[in-house]
Structures are given as C-alpha cells and as structure tokens.
Amino acid sequence: MVDDIFFVSIKIKPINNFKIYLDADGGLGIEKCIKINRALYRQMEEMGMYPDGDFSLEVSSPGIGEPLQLLRQYHKNVNRFVEVAKTDGQTLEGKLLVVSEDAITIETTEGKGKKTEIKSVEIPFADIKTTTVQIKF
User: 12: which residues sit within 8 A by CB, 6+ positions away?
Assistant: First the structure.
C-alpha cells in the first residue's frame, strides 16, 4: 500500500547527493525503496535538473539507530522499547505505551526480583531531545 508511506527527511550534500528518508506505517522494505528511487531518479533526469547526470539519489528508511522525528513515527512504534534522552540530560528506557499531540507515556521498570517497580512516565515533547527505538532480545 503506497498510502502508508510518508516523508521523514532529506539530506542534500554539496556534491549533488540526495538522501531521502521515508517511512511507512506497515514498514518500508527495500523493494519499495528501490521502486521509489527509480521513479524519482527518472523524474529528476526528465526535468533536466542536472543535465550531465551529475547527481546521486538514495532512498531509504531511517535506520534503527535514527531518532524518531515525526508524530506518525511515534504512533507507528507504540508497544516497542524506546530510549528517551530528555533536554535535562536524563535518559529513560521503557515501552512506548501512549502517544498524544503533546506527550508520550512510557512504561519503565526499576529494580529486580521482588523489588521490581513498574511505572508509567509521561514525557512532554517539549522535554524530549531524542527518542530512539531499542531492539530487545
């Protein structure tokens, strides 16, 4: 489904290197990236933006280590583990439970065994420096 694909960001280097980052609610596989890359490349050539073909184009999804940038990415990652770096220097890890327009709620676990304490922590977006999805094995 093409409708679930959304734009995340673009990086353009002075050497005419375009890196376009897309994501999708249902995941963005390499096959979709290749199709989009070919279509965009063809359009750029047809528009004559770089008559000598002096450009490169890369289309991909943000990597696992890349911070979430859009509200839609937060919604997509509900129930996954995240690391939240706050603007005050504090870092929290937990399961992303809720995403609203203004904040996220994560479930954190502190202690071990009988002393394990599970807390729900609401973090306003204004207090978030970065949020990164974590892979738990």
Answer: 18, 19
- CA–chain centroid gap for 61, Å, is 8
Parse the chain into domains and list their residue ranges: 2-60, 71-133
pTM comes to: 0.81
User: Which tens digits make up the pLDDT trace of 26-77?
Assistant: 888 899 999 999 999 999 888 888 878 789 999 999 887 899 999 999 999 9
CA 85/CA 93 separation, integer angstroms: 9
Q: In the chain, what's the furthest Cα-to-Cα distance?
A: 68
The answer to whether the CB of 116 falls within 8 A of the CB of 110 is yes
Task: Answer for the pair 10, 21: CB distance below 8 angstroms, yes or no.
Answer: yes
Could you tell me which of 49, 79, 85, 47 has the C-alpha nearest to residue 67? 85
| Whether CATH 2.60.40.10 fits 71-133 | no
How far apart, in whole angstroms, are the C-alpha atoms of residue 56 and residue 26? Answer: 27
Distances (CA, A) of 124 to 85, 96, 130: 12, 13, 12
Q: Cβ(77)–Cβ(66) under 8 Å?
A: no
